[in-house]
Amino acid sequence: MMNRLLSHDLPRSRWLAAALLLILFALAFAPFLFPGSKALGVAAKVLVFILLVASYDLLLGYTGIVSFAHTMFFGIGAYGVAIASTRLGPGFGGVLLGLALALVVSLALSLVIGLFSLRVKAIFFAMITLAVAAAFQTLASQLSDFTGGEDGLTFKNPEVLSPSFEPFDNPLFGVTVDGKLFTYYLLFGAVLVLFLALLRIVNSPFGRVLQAIRENDFRAEAIGFRTVVYRTLSNVLAALFACVAGALLALWLRYTGPDTTLSFEIMLDILLIVVIGGMGTMHGAVIGAALFMLAQNYLQDLLKLGQGLLAEVPVLGSIVSPDRWLLWLGVLFVLSVYHFPSGVVGRLRAMAVRRG
After folding, report:
1. Mean pLDDT of the region 329-336
2. Of 220, 263, 244, which Cα lies nearest the Cα of 64?
3. Domain limits for position 7
4. Beta carbons within 8 Å of 344's beta carbon, 6+ residues apart
5. How many CB atoms lie within 10 A of CB 224?
6. % of the chain at pLDDT higher than 90
């Protein structure tokens, strides 16, 4: 049964399987294992980025398409839910309508981008998507009456997902059961189902054709596959999954704005996570998102601890300053690329093959 769920795409490494099970267990029981709003927020962000990065890996890792417009579809999903909830009021009707309209817009835009741009060379397609994403971000910032402009939109979730909703008087295993907890498990369930769907897609005959196009598009065209059609479909599917990821983030934050979904920094984060986890491996999205989000959110805390221990040492005390956390994050990224050139997943699988 599990093999069927994973579409026969098994980890092929004991260490990788253990890491995936550990992350699954930690995310499934995060509210009970890691009390506190920050820890739960990090876990929710890991879930959202697993789906977002996995959808981008469908483009980059499996089809070989470099696109910088992925955050645009991420933002469309978030803004769709936020705008509908703001206009129609809190309720699942507004959320579902906003998501449906966002999916339609994402479908149309990704189809247009795919049909008009995927016929050009890779570098030109990347530049086109970058220009489209920048234009969309500017548009979202300027249409303040509709999108909230630079301030974004704050909205209320349906009552069941509201933090003030507490159906039980007593905590469950020391955790207050409220709308925030329900929202988290809505994210967990949606990401789990959609991630398994992505696994099914990349291990289907359609996914095999995408990989053939990535390896040699001329040969794939020569044996009868319409590469433009397959690339366009890949672009559309990736956009739809990214759109849902944006909607989930909006539900969690109860807010959306240009900085939370449309910024180029998020696109860079996606690229870093893909490289760290391993391109062309859906499991790499899980490993990479978990490692990157933990480093991004807790590296400063570790540096504060290190600075306290090394405060008397003249040089080291200043080097491990929490203000330099971005420097250390860059160092960690360089080290990970140097020691894991094919990503964490690729390295673990290679080690398993050598031992086997």
Report:
1. 81
2. 220
3. 2-355
4. 276, 277, 278, 284, 287, 288, 291, 336
5. 6
6. 46
- Domain count across the chain: 1
**180 and 237 Cβ atoms separated by less than 8 Å:** no
**At 313, is the pLDDT very low, low, confident or very high (cuts 50, 70, 90)?**
low
DSSP character at residue 266: H
Q: CB burial class (10 A; 0-12, 13-18, 19+) of residue 107?
A: middle
Cβ-based burial of 282 (10 A; exposed 0-12, middle 13-18, buried ≥19): buried
With a pLDDT cut of 70, the percent of the chain lying above it is: 92
pLDDT beyond 80 at 343? yes
Distance CA 278, CA 285 (A): 8
CATH of the domain at 299: 1.10.3470
Residues 56-75 have a mean pLDDT of 92
CA atoms within 13 A on the CB side of 202: 27
| Mean of pLDDT values over 107-116 | 87
Q: Residue 117 has what pLDDT? A: 66
Separation in Å, CA 207 to CA 67, 191, 237, 271? 18, 20, 12, 21
- Mean pLDDT of all residues in the chain? 87
Q: Which residues contact 339 (CB under 8 A, 6 or more apart)?
A: 347
Residue 137's closest CA among 75, 210, 58? 75
